[in-house]
Each structure stands twice: as C-alpha cells, then as structure tokens.
Specification:
Layout: E1 4-11, H1 15-26, E2 31-35, H2 42-45, H3 48-65, H4 80-103, E3 110-112, E4 115-119, E5 122-125, E6 130-138, E7 157-158, E8 172-176, H5 180-191, E9 195-200, H6 211-222, E10 226-229, E11 234-238, E12 241-246, E13 250-254, E14 256-259, E15 299-301, H7 312-328, E16 341-344, E17 350-354, E18 362-367, H8 372-376, E19 383-388, E20 394-400, H9 404-417, H10 421-425, H11 439-448
Parallel strand pairs: 1-2, 1-6, 2-3, 6-15, 7-14, 8-9, 8-14, 9-10
Antiparallel strand pairs: 4-5, 5-6, 11-12, 12-13, 16-17, 17-20, 18-19, 19-20
Length: 465
Amino acid sequence: MSDLQCDVAVIGAGTAGISAERAARGAGASTLLIDPNFAGTVCATVGCMPSKLLLAAAKRAHHARTADIFGISAPPQIDGKAVMQRLRRERDRFAQGVRDGFKRLPQGVAITARARFAGPNRLLLDDGRSVTAARTVIATGSAPAIPGPFQHLGDLILTNDNVFELPDLPESLAVIGAGVIGLELAQAMARLGVRVAVFDRANQIRLSRQPAINQAIAQALGAEFAIHHGSSPTPSRVDGKLRLDWGAGRSDMFDHVLIAAGRPPQVAGLDLDRTGATLDERGMPTFNDQTMQIEDLPIFIAGDVNGARPVLHEASQEGAIAGRNAARFPQVQPFDRSPQFTITFTDPPIARIGKGPDDAACVGLSDYGNQGRARVEDQAQGSVHLYADSQDRLIGADLFAPGGDHLAHLLLWAVIEGATATELLNRPFYHPTLEEGLRSALRQICRASDTALPPNQDCGNPPGS
C-alpha cells in the first residue's frame, strides 16, 4: 500500500469529524477522513438516540402507571425484551443513516485505520501507511471512564457504550454518577420497573447553577429512585452479582452497575507530544475555542475530544469551524460561538442557557408548581429562572420544568436575538400553555430593571396560567 497525501486529514468520523471533513472539502481542500470503524456517531449509536428511545418507553410506562389521577386505570405490563428490541431496531436505523453517508464520500476519502502523529504534518496509520497532511483536525471524541475499583468486574459493568445491548431489562441496577447520563438512564430504568440506586461523591446534584433547582431535581428524582450523595461505594463480585458497600456499614446487591462517571477525551495513542504542542497533566493541548486551532500549529481540535462543550450541536459547529480554518490555514478566522446550551432529558427536563446568575443584573422566577397547563397535565413542578442585563435583555436561563426542552429553545433564540423581557411580553402567549408561565419571570425582570410593563400585561395572567 502506498503512502497518502492531502491538504486536510481528519482523525475521527463522528459528528465533529464528519462536519470538519465536509467543511474542508467544501472550501476546496483535498481531504482524508480516518477512522478505525466508521460505525456511526456516538449520538446515533450509543448516545442521544438510544437513550431517548429508552426514555420514551419509560415515559409511556410512567404515564400509564400514573393515569389513575385522570380516572383511568391502566397498570403497565412491561416486556423488557420488547423494550430493548425496539430500542436497538430504531437505534440501528439511525446509525445506518450515518453509515450510508460515508458511502457517499468521494472515492479515496474514507481511510479505515487508526492514526497517530509522527510530527505536526505527518501521521502514521496502523496499516503501515503514512499520511503527509498540510493540516490536521483531531476529532476522536470521548470514551467512558471506569474508576479503578470497578475495572475488575467484567460483564457486571455497563456504560452508555454497552447498556443498550442488554437483551432484557435487569431487575436491579446501581448507577455511579449523578450527572446527565447517570440521571437520564436511572430515571428511565426506574420507570421501566428496574430497582435503581444512584451513587455520587458530591453532596448534592450539580446540574444547575441555581441551588433551588438542584434541590428540586434531587427531590423529584429521589421520589422515583434512591440517590446516595457523598458516597464512594466499594464494589465486589458475589455469586455472579455486584455487591456495593458504602457509608456506615451499608451494602446492597445489584445485577449490574452502570458507570456514568464522565467521558474524558480520547487522546491516548495519538502521540500528541510529537506535534510540538504544549500538553497539560492530562495530555491535553491548549486551543482557541473560536478558531479550534491548537496554539499556532497546523492542527485543529473539535468535538468531545477537546473537552469544552461535549454536546452534538457544539461538536457539529466546532467541526465546521475547524474544517474551514484547516482549509484556509494560515488565514485562520475566528467565529462567534452560540451561547452555551445544554439539556438533560429527565422528566421534567433540565436546561442551562447562556450566562448565569453571577452575570445578571436582574433575575426573574417562574414557578411551575401551580402553573395552569402544568396542573392540567399533572406535571406541576419545577421552575424557570431567567437572567437579564440592566436593560432587561435576556442573557441566560436555568430551568427544571415540564416542557423544558421546548421552553429552553425559545429562550436560547431570545438570548441570541438580544430580545428584552419587554419585547417578549409584547408577543402573544396562547392560553393555556406552558409558555405563558414564563411571563411571571419576564415581568419581574421588567420591574427590577425599571422598565415599564407593556399595557397588555397590567391586568395580570388569565386564570390558572
């Protein structure tokens, strides 16, 4: 096999890598997309989509189980094998769509191999070939971290990389980590009838910048499954099952343990030290998050591998920025980034948007514990905290509320547009909807910024809103 040359080599065919290769090729560069498997993106195969399929099944079960408040009796009969079969069937369809995209790449662009650096412009492939690349984009993603005490447990260990391969739902599950992945999957499993316990070293939930929201999350989710804060359990294998010991002599047995202790960047084996980049104690380089360039090198880093904003839409944007700049190097252009935006798909959803309370001149609160539409749906819990500057322009939000994944998009778009609380209050709110619950927070911001309320807001909310 002969060695290869290109303008831009992209290492990793996930969301960021696909976006980077497309952007670089679109800017006129010759490209190579290098990946050992071309299996599909993390989102499609082991992340966003399979987890939402599990959550969707769990929500249906929960609605059936709690329907008696509406005068409807329908206790669910959960077929764990059928749940997992549908999950994999739909997951595979999403993943196949990504793999079909690889087939449409120009001939010779996709290289099935592992790559490592031999210098800032040279890569070595594990098939014996080398690549001379004028510029390189690193997009190797992240992988689950397995804490040392759990590494010896073999097939008792689950991560989001293999939990969706279970042929049936387990009877019991321990979850290590009360972050996004841990809480989403813990709630899904619990609602599907699995006995779940979550263990986390922190003394409280830390998914929101608002302590009140973190307390509300802990209270709501703690009513569905056990959450043990401030705990670092010791695992052992007993008769083919998992035993966890923690605290003052407490212990329990589980079928499996789901490790959700983070997904660190996959930089091992890249030999980044050979690029000339300065690496920190974790082996990570410094990069510019508006250009994605590593120092002044012809190397860019995008997506989960840089550890900055590990969510899909950010990986896609970062890949596009890195690909365009790699094609144009050394004329590197900084790009404005959208406000930070994350959603945790618990029920209710949790979201963080833009700047937080420390940057706000005004804060408004909408309580969804007695909001009209939320009560209609038997989902009355949580709150929305809006942040604004002194001119009542929205700059961010934290929320834990019914419909929060949809409310969060509206709020993000308002922040991007520089909308003021007054402008939003001047727009129509249909009654009864979850959206009209935002008006309480918007009015508070107007009052705190000494901005006059629009005339149509002087009369207050419709009854029950």
